[in-house]
Request: fold
Amino acid sequence: MDEIVIKIDWTQINRPKIYRQLTKRYYGTAPRLIIIAAAMALLILSFIVMRATFGPSFFPQNGANYIFPLMCAGIGMRVLNNHWRKKLLHELDSAPVRQGIRSVILTPDGVTSPSSLILGSINWPEITEVVELPDTTLILFSPLEYIPLPDNGLPSGLTRAALLDQIAEWRKASA
Reply:
């Protein structure tokens, strides 16, 4: 095979889901556990500081007064984080390059796009990984940067397995 032309309809790409999956793959579960441990340590430290500041008699009667502000701060951080993340994803999704249907061409040399999806081309040695998702194959050129190859954009007669085999062959030949 000399080249494979794949159509990408960006309106059909579930970018938030892909970013969540790639982020989880990249970071794993350790950051989540670290965040929980840090929150617990902060909570315990705040109790120690309150007890040292206001004395042992103040703490038992009014401890709930200090839990509430900490909970509000945590919820506020979460809400702001979600808001900013959604705003960023909206800006990424509304970029002109992600509007409508684009094409990407896979060749023995790498990946190119005649429709300004990527500027120039990306050679196979620059591709870090090929990731299979339920309805899309991702060509990664960094842990979070990718070119989606949706199953519904494959040329007729080309299966995902055949696509993956061809990509593996081209990557191996270029190594």
Remarks:
- The first strand starts at residue 4 and ends at 9.
